[in-house]
Every structure is written in structure tokens, then in C-alpha cells.
Amino acid sequence: MKTHRANILIDKTHGLKFTESPRWHNGRLWFLDIHDRRIKTADLAGRVETVVDLPFVPNAFGVLSNGHLLVGDAMRRQIHRWDGNALQPLADLGEITTFCLSDGIVDAQDRMYVGDIGYNFFDPANAPVDTCVIACVEPDGRVRIVAENLSFPNGMVITPDGQTLIVGETAAHRLTAFDLLADGSLANRRVYAQLPEDVHPDGIALDAEGAVWLANPEGQFAALRVREGGEIVERVELDTHGYAVMLGGPERRSLFICAADSHDPAEIARGPSATLRVVDVAVPGAGVP
């Protein structure tokens, strides 16, 4: 098994607080800085810019076909659209989700799929639940549940043919796949990869061989490359934790890792530790995002 050592692209002096949902778009890495309440970008020279200041704690992020952005208000469980000038409400998921939005993804038809955390994960006394959902937000703001009874659905990818959606179920130690139907529905749920008990998939990225890179918060290795069926074939060792990954760069052979020492809001408020790491890999990224 190959073990990688990642380089630091953005260090702790750049003011990052906790980064999530990295997306490669227009030659830059776009991402949410959740506790700084901003959408930011970084280039390959390590320069960071703020794109949007947000009036809420964000999670779920995607780029529409016209370049506009969708972003979730995590705690109010709402989706907003940013058109380059103004932030406008698009959808309210309050009646079909519980507690907090998780990661999200935008497909080729500009639908957003977003996970529901389903319980108060800020309270250590609360055990994870297996009643979480994936919601679909149509371009006109209509919402519906397209998958139920998941365990903390988190990072998502869509295959290049647009026919399969894969989601990391953080609390169930697995990657789960669905057929993505023409009307946006999800069907034929199946296990894509069952993982060891010490692996908790968070953000994920798909490569051209159908393997999934996954962030593994608090695991022995910060990121793992997993083939369909569960074989772990590559890993990344960091001196901190990995929370999300993205295959980007000019040839999509750069694995970007959103890293931090902790996801605890109190610890982040006391001393932010977020960094962005990068490692070159052999197999390029594929699909969405």
C-alpha cells in the first residue's frame, strides 16, 4: 500500500478557521470556511481570497452550470443561491431534515443533493442516529426526500456518466451507492465499500478508476483511497486530521485536503488550526464535483 506525505498549501497564518466542501472550479479551489462564515478560494500559489461573506454558518456547497453558487445555511436548514452579486433564498428543508445540514452536491441538471445530520452532534451525550435522509432541491426550489434511513450521510460524488451517486455514511463506516434516475430520484441502494470500524468517511472525491478518496477524521490516516468493494490501496499521513478532499489542479491529479486539529467549535474559537494540504496522485479525478 502506498503512503503519501502531503505538502502544506495554506498554513495557519492565513486565517482559515474550518474548511469544508472543496470544489475545483475555474482554475481555483473553492471551499467553505464554516466558522468564518465565508466562501473562499485558493490558487496553487497559496493565495486565499474571500468570494462571499455569509450571514449564517454554511454547509453544503455546489456550483451551478451557469457558474452561480448554491450554499446551505446549516442550522436553519435552508439553501441559498449566489449569482455573483446577491445572496437569495432558494429552498427550505426545515420540515424534512433534523438539526443540521451536512455536505451537498450539485448535479448536471442543477439539482442539489444534501445530507441531513439528524442529531445534535455537538453534544457528546447524543449517539448518532440511522434515520437521516438525503434531500433533493430542484432548480426552482422544490424539495423532497430521495433517500432515508442513513447514518450521517456526508460527502457525495456523482460518476462521469451521471448515473450513480455515492455518499459517505460517516457513522456506518461505509460508502453507499444509488442509481441516479432521470427525474432526480435515487434507487437501487447498495454498499459501494464497507470500511473498517476506525474509518469514518467525511468528504469524498472520485477518480477515473472508480476509486474513492475519502477524508477520515481522527483516523490513523487522514485520507484513504478505496476501491469499490472496500480495498484500501493508498493513504495519506498527516500531523492533523482530514475532513474533506478534492481532486483538482490542471489535470485533476492534485488531492487537496481540508485539515484541522479539531472540529469542535469551542476549540476552533480558542485557536483555529485549519490548513489546506495537497499531494500529487497518479489517477486523475472524475465526475462531480
Task: Describe this structure as you would to a colleague.
The chain is mainly beta. Helices cover 2% and strands 50% of the residues. It is built from 1 helix and 25 strands. The protein has one helix at residues 265-270; strands at 2-5, 7-10, 19-25, 28-33, 38-42, 48-53, 58-63, 69-73, 78-82, 87-92, 101-106, 112-116, 132-137, 143-150, 153-158, 164-169, 174-180, 186-194, 204-206, 212-215, 223-226, 232-237, 241-248, 254-260, 275-280. The strands form 6 sheets. The chain has a 5-stranded mixed beta sheet, with no helix packed on it. It has a 4-stranded antiparallel beta sheet with strand order 2-25-24-23, with no helix packed on it. Strands 3-4-5-6 form a 4-stranded antiparallel beta sheet, with no helix packed on it. The protein is globular and about 45 Å long.
